[in-house]
Amino acid sequence: MGGQGAAASKPVARVPAVQQAAQKQTPVMMFVGDSFTVGSGPVRAWETYATETARQLGWQPVIAGAGGTGYVSEGRVGRTFQQSFVAELAWRPAPDLLIISGGHNDRRWPATTVRQAAARLVWTVKGYWPNTRIVMVGPIWIGEAPPQAYRVRDALAEVAARERVAFLDPLGQRWIDGRRSEVLLPDGVHPTLGGHAKLARWLTDALRAAPA
């Protein structure tokens, strides 16, 4: 009888399977980005604007990339956005949405070089996931951006228009409307938790408004 009782209790183990099925129905959004996306300083990966955007939309986030990287810039990790995409994301099942966010670290390269690298990445993504929606987010600057940032922004916007993917421009936003320390870390570059919260609200609203 003891064995039968143990066997009778086994169906309870099906509950996680039901939960797993529910999770599979949750839309998945993936990100490729730099330190703004993966976290820097006291802001961890699960506290960034990327994760918070997914949380506000009720989507499941998968975040790839590394600080200092870009479409051309390899950063200290020695890889570009394209290499991060292939290594961290391309082998996974296709997501509902891929956000390529960056360009901040590409300002030292000619716009033509950035444009070519960005186009190559978009082509690569479409080759792996032809049905995945792609959104490009331009370089993020919490404070005043240098002229090079606008050249990178324009190069990326051109690629997005040509490849028919949505482009969102953080440089067109005003992030500091009070004390700088509320949104900007002491390094003068990266956002605080409050800054990430602002970025998340902006990105969430922009994604909801952008055509699918």
TrEMBL record:
InterPro entries: Ester_Hydrolysis_Enzymes, SGNH_hydro, SGNH_hydro_sf. It comes from the Bacteria. Residues 31-197 form the SGNH hydrolase-type esterase domain. This is Lysophospholipase L1-like esterase.
